[in-house]
Design brief:
Layout (H helix, E strand, L loop, with lengths): L1 H22 L5 H19 L2 H7 L13 H4 L7
Amino acid sequence: MNRMVRSALVMGMAWAGLAVTLACQPAAAADDAVITADKAADAALAKGDKLAANKWLDPDFSWSIPKHHVGQAGCTPRGT
């Protein structure tokens, strides 16, 4: 019985080590493409380059400002 408990403990530690190792793997290549696109869109928006930003944004994209920020942004809501 004691030998079985030790074997189970060793196997559990091995599986835990494997899980930690797999969890620490870098992002997949598909994620790299998404990150690259995100950085390009951020850079275009930061520079104010509308043509470059439109390349990355959805054609139906629109900015929305929460109602509590409207006065701070110097805007007036539509329909008022």
